[in-house]
Structure formats: structure tokens, C-alpha cells
Design a protein that fits this description.
2 copies of one chain form a homodimer.
Chain A (H helix, E strand, L loop, with lengths): L4 E8 L2 E8 L2 E5 L1 E4 L11 H6 L5 E3 L1 H6 L3 H6 L3 H5 L5 E3 L3 H5 L5 E3 L4 E4 L6 E4 L1 H11 L3 E3 L11 H22 L6 E6 L5 H14 L3 E4 L8 H11 L9 E3 L5 H9 L4 E4 L1 H7 L2 E4 L2 E4 L19 H5 L2 H9 L3 H27 L3 H14 L6
Parallel strand pairs in A: 4-14, 5-6, 6-10, 10-11, 11-12, 12-13, 13-14
Antiparallel strand pairs in A: 1-2, 2-3, 7-8, 8-9, 15-16
Helix pairs in contact in A: 6-7, 7-8, 11-14, 13-14, 14-15
């Protein structure tokens, strides 16, 4: 049986390309993980998600523990069988979602007591319970339970949350135990304060994890501040372990993060935008609901090989969006996930061939060009 | 180029199996036509609709003329290219939908003036305009413009509507002209009155059409009355032309109609039910939202080869329905369309082999059995 392992294939500046081996298959890095919140990537069959080039999905502990319930998923054979996805799955710890339930939660050193947003029932999440849920789900990459404060926050508040998260990381490691073929990732906190980030990285590496996430970013600080943190923070982490930037992001966020040494990312953006009529292309964002598309026989992106671009005109995509047809969400989500995976594939190839700077320049030039002229 | 033509392969009692040849492919009969109201079979990619075994789709003139507009569809290459479906398409005449716009329409000998339910704009439908729209859409099988009264209605009202429809059928034929490879179907009216049905059939056959629809049924009269009409009405129509029962129906309606000599049907039921959590199986209807499915690891139907049955448990289908995931509509619609097409394939084979009575008995026995016992 393959054990979990990370191999670095090439570096180009701070950017890295490599592969994470797992018993369920290889994850090519830099990797973008589509989000399957409640056991489905919205509006997509899992075989279609795989067809876009995704090697791994993210599942949400918070949503799945409430509905259908982690014990139920375990009885049904685990999340992979339940949702018909046999490649790797990373699960978050539930910490991020539960913290955002302002008014419905109560924090303590032990963990977080909270009420379900679905039915008001009471639940508890702690490092131990989060590890148990992620084990019940059958997650391949398990995340430590942490507290992620929204920014802006006072430095004292950020420091308190970070130190609590480090104690919880220790407890997470203890509770996770020894599970060959499964990985546990630590999560660095510390907001936008360099000393706190370094303290957090030191605490995590002292415990020792299979991979390290940069948490507490993309929470309101803006791209410049996020890149500012990444400029130093990835360097605090061991080079021989994957580095995961949580909840990122827009295409230019992703490219900038990869340029700063990030190996993995996840975001709901491609799927959520697909449902609201926004399509990502090499030339920026297309709002398919705009009347300018109503008579346009051209595809969204003539160079894209996804089904939405291969088989349909902008006029059709505009029509099904306006008519509120489910097919609109299906096609635009597929296109966006395809675009995000092509972005990652492009970066992996460029890094491997030592031409990442030129690739980045071309990426930004394409976006600066803007969408094709209306007919 | 193949011209339009109908070949009868076998009969078994009143039931018939055969094939309709068109330049866009063969339609095996008895045929069930999924409904693609606004240029999409809701929640389905067209290649998935084809994978269920559908040889032909139905498109709605009323919906398409209002949005995106027939002239626009024509500029974009016709409905087949627009919606990425290259097999045959039958379009209705718009008559049925426009008649149901009570308060928003005004009838005359010429046609129907009405207001759009989408934006209130004013439009006109007449035999001539309906033929023009169906030509602009590129329909393979065009339906005459008719008036279909809801039942119950007085015999006088039914007779008046039928005779108007026959005058409109004459005008439809005139306006349709000579279009090799395209077919025009007449629509019999006359409610549940035998003499009116016969008068209508005589009027239509005197004009001469490529096929004949039985209209004005499945509009509130109930299954017994509908079968009562079909018992004699199909016999009024030429045996060498396809017979189409419009807007039907539930599986047992379909089986009963085929037993009475019907060759084609259409209905929104499989797709609409899919979106509301109802699944059709050999053992009747399954309401996937019922709590009894929450822990059930078994497929909807162990003998079904659709993706919903092959890859997912009832527990998963229950979960995604409860979580209001788009995937629920996608999977259950697929299953239902697959079930309806398997039903047709089963009848075609049974008729061809002269065992339709036994097939019907097995069909009803399966449904009488009811769903599998909860665990």
C-alpha cells in the first residue's frame, strides 16, 4: 500500500511543482481542490469533476457532521463511496465554519459548542471530535482543529487565537494517532504579524505534521496583505512538506500564491460563480447575463475544450442563464472548474520547464486584454 | 437525403412497433419524447438524454418564441445547433400553452393574441405564424396549430373548438408548404365524444398529413375516459402513419396508450418528478425525501443501469435531495428518463416478439408489488 508522501520535482524561484502520493492516487502540485461542501461539488457529477483534471476534492466537516452525519457516512462506507469519488479527499476541521456562527457558538479551551444552522440542534467540536469525524468520513488528508479569526483583529486577539490553535494542534496530533496512508496537516495562524507567523510555524514543526497549511488568510485582509504574509511565511515551513493555502482564491490570488511557494489551494469560487453566471477565462471574467451575449454565436473561450465552450454559443449560455435553467449552473461550473485546473496544469508545466516568470507575464497580459469585443 | 417515412415492423393486438425515418436519424416506436421546453431538458446534458435512449426531443414553440425568440434561434443556426442536439426534434404549435393563458389572451378566427408571461409583451399566434416559428426553429416534426379545450367542457364548446382546429389544420398545411425531410402532423380534437373524434379524423385525413396526433386528452378527463377515447379513436386514423398522443403521461398511461395503438408520446413527468424527489421504478414511485431512505445503502432499483442506480445509495440520493443540491435533480431526472426509455424499449421488444400481453401483465405485477421493504 502506498503511504502518504510528497516529492518535489522542480522549483522556479519560490514556485514549486511536485506530487503528493496517497493510496487513492497521486495529487499533482500545485493543486487546486474543488469544494464538495455537502458531499457533492454543486451541479457536477463526480466523474465530470475528475474530467476537469482535479486530483483531489475538499469536503466540509461542519456541513457533513450536521447532515447527513459523520457516523451515518461511516456506516454507509465512508465519504468516498457515499459520494462516488475514489480519488483523495481532504477535509477541513470544521473550525472555520463553526467560528463564523456568531451568536450560535460558545468557545472554551476544550473546543466549541454550537447550534446547527439547519435545525438548531446542539453540537460540540474539539480537536478530538474533529479528528474522530474526519476519520469517520474516511478523509485522506485531515486538517487540525484551529481557530481562525476574521481580519482585521487586534494583534492580541490574533496571538491568543494562534496560541490556542497551537495547543489544539498538539491535541489534534495526539487524537489523530498513527494512520498509515492518511495525512494530518497543521495550520499556521498569526494574522499579518510576522513574529506570530514564525512562532506558529515553529510550534507546528516542533509537533511535526505531514503537511502545513497557511490559515487565517483570505479572511478580509486583501490580496496585498496576503501576498505580504506569503512572502515570508512559506519560508518558515519545511521545504519537504506540502504547503496548503486555505480558501484561496481568484485566479490571480492562486498564481501569486504559487509564485510564493504554495502547493495546494481550495475555493468555492469556480462553482459558486458558475451558479451566478460568472465565467473565468484567460481574458478575465465574463458575465454571461449581460445582454451583449444574447446574439453572440461565439464560444465563451475559443481555446477552451470544456463542454460549455466546445458545444455551446455565448447566446445559448446567456439564454439558459436568463431562463434560470439548471443547465446554466452545470455548464458554467464545469467551465470554471476546467479553467482552474488548466491554470494549475499551465503553472506545473511552466515551473517544471523553468519558465514560470514568462508564464506569469502571459497570464497577466491575457487578463489585461479583457474579453473579446462584442459583435 | 432520407425523407420522412414511417415503417410498421410488427403489431400485437392494437399495439404497434416500427420506425420513423428522418434525415436526422431514426425514431424507434413506440417512442417517448422527453420535453426540452426552453431549449434544454431540465438538469440534463443533451448527450445524457441521448444516453438514456431517447431518439427525439420535444421543444415548445410558445416558450422558445418568447425567449430567446424564433428569429434569434434561426440566426444562431436553428434549435438543434443552439441546444447541441442533432437527433430529431418535434415542436408543438404553441396552441396548448397559449390557450392556458386565461386573461392574457384573445381568440379569433385568425388566431390568438396574447401577452408574454415573462415580460407582458404582446404577441400573435396563428396557423401561419406557428408554421413560420417551427420552420425558424428547424423542427423535424411540426405540429398544426389547434385549439385544445380543457375538460370538462360542453359538447358544443368541444365541437366549436374542434371545427376551428380543423380550419386551422387546413391553413397549417397550406402555410407549411412542401418541405422534404420535414413532417407536418395533424391533431385530432373532439373531447370524449366519439362522433366529434370521427368527424375530426375525417377532416384531417382529407387534408392529408405525415402523422396524426390525438389531442385534447390528458387535460382533466381521467385515465378511464382517456382510454375510452383511444379504444376507438386510433382506429379512425390511417394505419400507415404514426399516431402521437400528446402530453402523456404516467407509466401506466403510456402502456395503456401503446396497447391502444399509439406510437409516440411526450410528457414533462420524468423530468419534473425528478426535481421534486420522485423516482419511477418497476415497483412504482419512490419518494426519495422519505426518512426511511436516510440509512438505506441499496440503490433505487438494483436492476437499473442508470448512473443514479449504479453509483449511489438511496441514502445518498435522500441526502442530496434534503440538502437541496442540484445533483439531486440531475440524478433523479436521469434515472426517470432512463426508466421511461427502458419502458419503451421493453414494449418495442415485446410487440416485436408477439408477447405484449405477457409483458403488460408483468408490468402491472411489478407495480402491484410495491417498493422494496425498508431495512
Amino acid at each position: 500500500m502506498t503511504t502518504f508522501g510528497f516529492t518535489l520535482h522542480a522549483t522556479d524561484g519560490a514556485a514549486r511543482s511536485g506530487a503528493i502520493a496517497t493510496p487513492r492516487g497521486t495529487i499533482r502540485t500545485p493543486a487546486f481542490m474543488p469544494v464538495g461542501t455537502a458531499g457533492t461539488v454543486k451541479a457536477m457529477l463526480p466523474e465530470s469533476v475528475a474530467a476537469t483534471g482535479a486530483d483531489i476534492l475538499l469536503g466540509n466537516t461542519y456541513h457533513l457532521m450536521l447532515r447527513p452525519g459523520a457516523e451515518r457516512v461511516a456506516r454507509l462506507g465512508g465519504l468516498h463511496a457515499f459520494m462516488h469519488w475514489n480519488k483523495p479527499i481532504l477535509t477541513d476541521s470544521g473550525g472555520f465554519q463553526v467560528m463564523s456562527l456568531a451568536g450560535l457558538r460558545k468557545m472554551s479551551e476544550d473546543g466549541v459548542a454550537f447550534r446547527s444552522h439547519i435545525d438548531g440542534s446542539t453540537h460540540m467540536l474539539s480537536p478530538e471530535r474533529s479528528m474522530e469525524i474526519q476519520r469517520l468520513l474516511g478523509s485522506d488528508i485531515v486538517m487540525c482543529f484551529d481557530e481562525c479569526p476574521a481580519l482585521p483583529a487586534s494583534e492580541a486577539e490574533v496571538a491568543r487565537a494562534m496560541r490556542l490553535s497551537m495547543r489544539w494542534a498538539e491535541r489534534s496530533k495526539q487524537a489523530f494517532g498513527d494512520r498509515p496512508g492518511h495525512a494530518l496537516f497543521g495550520i499556521m495562524q498569526g494574522g499579518v504579524t510576522r513574529e506570530l507567523r514564525e512562532e506558529s510555524a515553529d510550534a507546528l514543526t516542533a509537533i511535526g505534521f505531514d503537511g502545513y497549511a497557511v490559515g487565517g488568510l483570505a479572511v478580509g485582509e486583501g490580496q496585498e496583505a496576503m501576498f505580504g504574509v506569503l512572502d515570508y511565511a512559506t519560508g518558515f515551513l519545511p521545504a519537504d512538506r506540502p504547503r496548503y493555502l486555505m480558501g484561496v482564491g481568484k485566479p490571480d490570488d492562486i498564481v501569486g500564491a504559487v509564485a510564493r511557494g504554495i502547493d495546494m489551494m481550495d475555493c468555492v469560487l469556480p462553482s459558486r460563480s458558475g451558479r451566478t453566471g460568472q465565467a473565468f477565462t484567460r481574458r478575465g471574467v465574463v458575465n454571461i447575463k449581460n445582454a451583449s451575449h444574447a446574439d453572440d454565436p461565439r464560444p465563451l473561450d475559443e481555446h477552451c475544450s470544456c463542454p460549455a465552450c466546445r458545444n455551446y454559443s455565448r447566446a445559448y449560455l446567456h439564454h439558459v442563464f436568463r431562463a434560470q435553467e439548471i443547465l446554466s449552473s452545470m455548464l458554467l461550473t464545469w467551465h470554471n472548474l476546467h479553467y482552474f485546473q488548466e491554470l494549475m496544469a499551465g503553472m506545473r508545466a511552466a515551473i517544471a520547464e523553468g519558465r514560470f516568470a514568462a508564464w506569469q507575464a502571459a497570464f497577466h497580459a491575457g487578463r489585461a486584454e479583457g474579453d473579446i469585443e462584442p459583435l
